[in-house]
Design goal:
- The chain is of the alpha/beta class.
- The chain has helices at 9-16, 27-30, 37-51, 72-81, 93-99, 107-117, 134-137, 142-149, 165-174, 206-218, 239-256, 263-274, 278-300, and strands at residues 5-7, 21-24, 55-62, 65-68, 86-88, 103-105, 121-123, 153-156, 179-182, 201-203, 225-228.
- The chain is built from 13 helices and eleven strands.
- Strands 1, 2, 3, 4, 5, 6, 7, 8, 9, 10 and 11 form an eleven-stranded mixed sheet that branches.
- The radius of gyration is 18 Å and the shape is globular.
Amino acid sequence: MNNYLEISPEVQAALAEGKPVVALESTIISHGMPYPQNVETAMNVEQIVRQNGAVPATIAIIGGKLKAGLSADEIEYLGKKGYAVTKASRRDLPVLVARGEDGATTVATTMIIAAMAGIKVFATGGIGGVHRGAEVTMDISADLEELARTPVLVVCAGAKSILDLGLTLEYLETKGVPVIGYGTEELPAFYTRKSGFGVDYRLDTPEEVAAAFRAKLEMDLGGGMLVTNPIPEQYSMDPDVINKAIDEAVAEANAQGIRGKQTTPFLLAKIKDITGGDSLASNIRLVYNNAALAAKVAGQL
């Protein structure tokens, strides 16, 4: 095992015994919502993974160590520290590790550390993607490149609807990443079940999803697989309401010159304010839904 990686005893034992393990990100803890709701949500997600037959491995960088599997105290620490924790993508890992600093892992970095640890399935909220106006700004999330290179199956509620969903799908197609709709032929758009864009394939059971990913691994095709799992109907937001809020938030971000890794946290916080907290409630529910599906898929793998 490399010198930078620390796997918790519980996760290490599960991997050694061939038990299903689900990786979980930590950006949602430090940058996704306020304390103490962030810690409560993270602990609930871990519990949902357990209830569905898998072992949770929340991933972060703490004191320069790449951690696969956090203790309750470590989750509390990240939750309280909040925005003071670096939002860490692939480019940040060398410096954070060398300096012995903390980092909350994005989708990309969670995939990297999960793969190092031998974890094949990862549950998140929504992936990053091609931002609106990227033909001018070149603002494209590193999550997409990671999906193209790292062999981890990612369960999400689609790409965040703050993005250009059409261009995000085109990018994934170019990189050879299969985009699966779980029980749907339409790409979910994070807060809503509808986007107007199609997925590559519809699969309807955890067994089907696991079989497709197993075939990808056995053929050594490289890269991951994206499983888009629609937010449950009762928590789905009205597309007109959420799209109006997104347009307002994007306009304000542009007016303030918000760029780079600050963009997504700014937009999500602004949308929460505009919707009176409804978007945050939906965000939490879709993460729970993804954690349950990821655990079932990991069990089949």
